[in-house]
Amino acid sequence: MTTTAPWTDDELDRVGSAEELEVASRRPDGELGGRRTIWVVRVDDDIYVRSVNGPTSAWFRGTRARHEGRVEAGGVEKDVAFEDVDGEINQAVDAAYRTKYGRYSANTIQRITSSTAGSTTMRLLPR
Protein backbone atom coordinates (compact mmCIF):
# COMPACT_ATOMS: atom_id res chain seq x y z
CA MET A 1 0.00 0.00 0.00
CA THR A 2 1.66 3.16 -1.18
CA THR A 3 0.18 6.54 -0.39
CA THR A 4 0.93 9.51 -2.61
CA ALA A 5 0.43 12.30 -0.09
CA PRO A 6 -1.25 12.88 3.24
CA TRP A 7 -4.61 14.61 3.44
CA THR A 8 -4.36 18.36 2.96
CA ASP A 9 -5.70 20.55 5.75
CA ASP A 10 -8.60 21.57 3.48
CA GLU A 11 -9.45 17.93 2.70
CA LEU A 12 -9.29 16.98 6.38
CA ASP A 13 -11.65 19.83 7.24
CA ARG A 14 -14.10 19.07 4.43
CA VAL A 15 -14.18 15.28 4.79
CA GLY A 16 -14.04 15.39 8.58
CA SER A 17 -16.97 17.79 8.82
CA ALA A 18 -19.12 16.08 6.18
CA GLU A 19 -22.24 14.46 7.59
CA GLU A 20 -21.79 11.37 5.43
CA LEU A 21 -19.21 9.77 3.20
CA GLU A 22 -19.75 7.72 0.05
CA VAL A 23 -17.45 4.70 -0.09
CA ALA A 24 -16.81 2.23 -2.89
CA SER A 25 -14.30 -0.58 -2.50
CA ARG A 26 -12.10 -1.82 -5.33
CA ARG A 27 -12.98 -5.35 -6.39
CA PRO A 28 -10.35 -8.02 -7.17
CA ASP A 29 -10.63 -7.14 -10.89
CA GLY A 30 -9.73 -3.51 -10.10
CA GLU A 31 -13.19 -2.08 -10.78
CA LEU A 32 -15.04 -0.09 -8.14
CA GLY A 33 -17.99 -1.74 -6.46
CA GLY A 34 -21.23 0.01 -5.60
CA ARG A 35 -21.22 3.06 -3.36
CA ARG A 36 -22.47 2.99 0.21
CA THR A 37 -23.26 5.95 2.43
CA ILE A 38 -21.61 5.76 5.86
CA TRP A 39 -20.58 8.03 8.71
CA VAL A 40 -17.06 9.43 8.88
CA VAL A 41 -15.00 11.05 11.64
CA ARG A 42 -11.73 12.89 11.92
CA VAL A 43 -9.28 12.27 14.75
CA ASP A 44 -6.28 14.59 14.63
CA ASP A 45 -4.93 14.43 11.06
CA ASP A 46 -6.60 11.15 10.12
CA ILE A 47 -9.99 10.13 8.74
CA TYR A 48 -11.76 7.03 10.08
CA VAL A 49 -14.77 4.94 9.13
CA ARG A 50 -16.35 1.80 10.54
CA SER A 51 -19.29 -0.45 9.85
CA VAL A 52 -22.22 0.04 12.21
CA ASN A 53 -23.26 -3.53 11.38
CA GLY A 54 -19.82 -4.98 12.02
CA PRO A 55 -17.74 -7.25 9.79
CA THR A 56 -20.75 -8.93 8.16
CA SER A 57 -21.76 -5.73 6.36
CA ALA A 58 -21.48 -6.07 2.56
CA TRP A 59 -19.55 -2.82 2.06
CA PHE A 60 -17.05 -3.75 4.78
CA ARG A 61 -16.53 -7.23 3.34
CA GLY A 62 -15.84 -5.54 0.01
CA THR A 63 -12.89 -3.68 1.54
CA ARG A 64 -11.21 -6.99 2.36
CA ALA A 65 -10.45 -7.87 -1.28
CA ARG A 66 -7.83 -5.20 -2.04
CA HIS A 67 -7.99 -2.74 0.87
CA GLU A 68 -8.47 0.00 -1.74
CA GLY A 69 -11.35 2.11 -2.93
CA ARG A 70 -12.69 5.60 -3.50
CA VAL A 71 -14.45 7.95 -1.13
CA GLU A 72 -16.39 11.15 -1.61
CA ALA A 73 -17.42 13.61 1.10
CA GLY A 74 -17.54 17.37 1.51
CA GLY A 75 -16.79 17.89 -2.18
CA VAL A 76 -13.59 15.81 -1.95
CA GLU A 77 -13.24 12.67 -4.05
CA LYS A 78 -10.16 10.52 -3.40
CA ASP A 79 -8.76 7.10 -4.05
CA VAL A 80 -7.84 5.62 -0.69
CA ALA A 81 -6.33 2.63 1.00
CA PHE A 82 -8.26 1.11 3.91
CA GLU A 83 -5.92 0.51 6.85
CA ASP A 84 -7.28 -1.66 9.65
CA VAL A 85 -6.63 -0.18 13.07
CA ASP A 86 -7.14 -1.43 16.59
CA GLY A 87 -6.24 -0.61 20.14
CA GLU A 88 -6.33 2.76 21.86
CA ILE A 89 -7.28 4.69 18.72
CA ASN A 90 -10.73 3.12 18.96
CA GLN A 91 -11.43 5.13 22.12
CA ALA A 92 -10.65 8.36 20.27
CA VAL A 93 -12.75 7.25 17.29
CA ASP A 94 -15.64 6.36 19.64
CA ALA A 95 -15.40 9.83 21.19
CA ALA A 96 -15.36 11.46 17.76
CA TYR A 97 -18.51 9.55 16.74
CA ARG A 98 -20.27 10.52 19.99
CA THR A 99 -19.35 14.17 19.55
CA LYS A 100 -20.18 14.45 15.86
CA TYR A 101 -23.36 12.34 15.78
CA GLY A 102 -24.53 12.75 19.39
CA ARG A 103 -27.82 14.31 18.29
CA TYR A 104 -28.96 10.87 17.05
CA SER A 105 -30.66 8.34 19.31
CA ALA A 106 -28.67 6.73 22.12
CA ASN A 107 -29.27 3.34 20.48
CA THR A 108 -27.72 4.53 17.19
CA ILE A 109 -24.68 5.95 18.96
CA GLN A 110 -24.30 2.77 21.01
CA ARG A 111 -24.28 0.70 17.81
CA ILE A 112 -21.58 2.78 16.07
CA THR A 113 -19.42 2.74 19.22
CA SER A 114 -19.98 -0.95 20.05
CA SER A 115 -17.11 -3.44 20.09
CA THR A 116 -18.65 -5.06 16.99
CA ALA A 117 -18.48 -1.80 15.02
CA GLY A 118 -15.11 -0.97 16.60
CA SER A 119 -13.67 -4.20 15.21
CA THR A 120 -14.12 -2.73 11.71
CA THR A 121 -12.40 0.62 12.30
CA MET A 122 -10.33 1.70 9.31
CA ARG A 123 -8.11 4.70 8.68
CA LEU A 124 -8.51 6.14 5.17
CA LEU A 125 -5.13 6.77 3.54
CA PRO A 126 -5.10 8.93 0.40
CA ARG A 127 -3.53 7.28 -2.63
From TrEMBL:
Residues 13-28 have a biased composition (Basic and acidic residues). It comes from Streptomyces asoensis. Pfam families: DUF2255. Residues 1-28 are annotated as: Disordered. This is DUF2255 family protein. The lineage of its organism: Bacteria, Bacillati, Actinomycetota, Actinomycetes, Kitasatosporales.
